[in-house]
Amino acid sequence: MPTSPSCNANCLGCISLQPSDSCPASQERIDFIPTLDEVIGVALPHLEEAENAIVSFGQGCEGEPLMQWRLLVRSIQKLREKTNRGTINLNTNGSFPKRVGELCDAGLDSIRVTLSSPHPEYYRRYHRPRGYTLEDVIDTLLLAKEKGIYTSINLLVFPGFTDRESEVAELIKFIRNTHLDLIQLRNLNIDPDLYLNAMEEGEGMGIPRMIDILKREFPSLQWGYFNRTRDSFYRRESSS
What's the CATH code of the domain at 151? Predict the structure, then answer.
């Protein structure tokens, strides 16, 4: 559910906002802030009636939901007053740990943080954050985990960069520090020249090898492409 028309990052590959002389954005941002009643009107029937129901604030490229955190807190509280059914998730850049803490206390079930790189410099080059740093993102995940929230990252994958030896080493440190539950691998569809001009040329080990290394380092780490519902948060993957 989109709730914010604004964002505090200027990601290189944003698909909802690009300079006027660039390629057209593939989706438009909302140009208003929804009311509490509008949010409840969409979310509550879904939570009450849908199979494996899940509602998510934010999508990743439509404005940062934490910019409207008070609306989110009220919405989660109201939803949980009405029903305990379903999963309430937050897709975010993780820029405001304290705000995330308020959402957790209100009844948030899970959080997914978008990450281009666990290396501070490359993180800054891609996300171009305004008023926050990668340390804030890490603090968000740590606080959510402390409050018992299921945590994941939306890892933006670019072969030849994401699987570089130095990036994999940093990712291992990141996972070990934050105790992540799930990594969602997201194909980063972006002009390779534009991306590598910002992130520097290099050579990767191959995505399959990267995943094998991470699976050996973190046997209980889960993998996927979508947010999970509460009944499948910690389900063991099939060996097949």
Answer: 3.20.20.70
Q: Which residues make Cβ contacts (< 8 Å) with residue 105, sequence separation at least 6?
A: 147
The Cα–Cα gap between 27 and 29 comes to 7
Q: Report the candidate in 128, 106, 121 with the shortest Cα–Cα distance to residue 39.
A: 106
pLDDT in tens, 186-204: 999 899 999 999 999 899 9
Report how far residue 209's alpha carbon sits from residue 8's, in angstroms, rounded to the nearest whole number. Answer: 34
Determine the structural domain holding residue 86 and report its residue range: 36-229
> How far is 193 from 202, CA to CA, in rounded Å?
12
The closest alpha carbon to 32, from 88, 60, 71, belongs to 71
Least confident residue range of 23-37, 40-54, 65-79, 199-213: 23-37
Domain membership of residue 47 (yes or no) is yes
Question: If 0-12 CB within 10 Å is exposed, 13-18 middle and 19+ buried, where does residue 142 land?
Answer: middle
Contact 48, 85 (CB under 8 A): yes
CA pair distance 128, 11, nearest whole angstrom: 6
Instruction: Report yes or no on 48 lying in a domain.
Output: yes
In a domain, 12, yes or no: no
Q: What is the band of 59 on the pLDDT scale with cuts at 50, 70, 90?
A: confident
- SS3 label, residue 67: helix
Radius of gyration of the chain (CA): 18
Give the three-class secondary structure for 43.
helix
Number of domains in the chain: 1
| Tens of pLDDT, residues 116-171 | 999 999 999 999 999 999 999 999 999 999 999 999 999 999 999 999 999 999 99
